[in-house]
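Example 4.3 (complexes with small molecules)
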Amino acid sequence: MFNKLVTSLESCPMVQRGEYHYFIHPVSDGVPLVEPALLREVAIEMVRVLDLTRVNKIVVAEAMGIHIGVALSLITDIPLCIVRKRHYDLPGEVALHQSTGYSKGELYLNGIEEGDRVVIVDDVLSTGGTMKALLEGLAVAGAEVRDVLVVIKRGECDIGRDYKALVEIEVDESGVHVKDTFF
Ligand SMILES: O=P(O)(O)OC[C@H]1O[C@H](OP(=O)(O)OP(=O)(O)O)[C@H](O)[C@@H]1O
Ligand code: HPA
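Answer. The structure with hypoxanthine bound is encoded below.
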């Protein structure tokens, strides 16, 4: 059940980032506080919903994929690949351009080998810019993406493949509205 996720989303604060109504929530921002019971609820549902058959790596993007990725990795014992905003210039590093509704930047993928079977998890899908960048990078690295799951789907978005979400929301000037839950 998504009692904690739904109720905390419906009461979370919002700020303007230019034209973008940005909601602030522990899963998507780490503030004001990530309660263990909320993180546990999210992690258990991620395990239930994801197809993890023969998956050997979980891929997340810095920063707000990390806490959910760690929770999932600890439960499943599947290693975590964190796509960083910092470059390391290691052999095989793949640089990606990320664009969101309020920012642009670079991401750097390391630790993926040809033939890896991965799942991608992220906190939010909004414009899809981040997810499309991750999918492109994983294709370049030669990984097979077995499943994609976001905790919070914000509006409609085509990322060129199927994906799963735990909750779907809409955001306007009055706040966050939970439209649907998928469980
Ligand atoms: O679908 P999109 O429009 O791409 O938005 C979703 C992305 O935006 C946020 O990342 P952000 O780059 O803000 O960084 P953060 O995780 O460090 O907060 C969030 O963590 C997602 O990765
Ligand atoms: O409105 C938002 N809040 C938090 N994280 C996000 N990532 C994309 N949009 C948002």
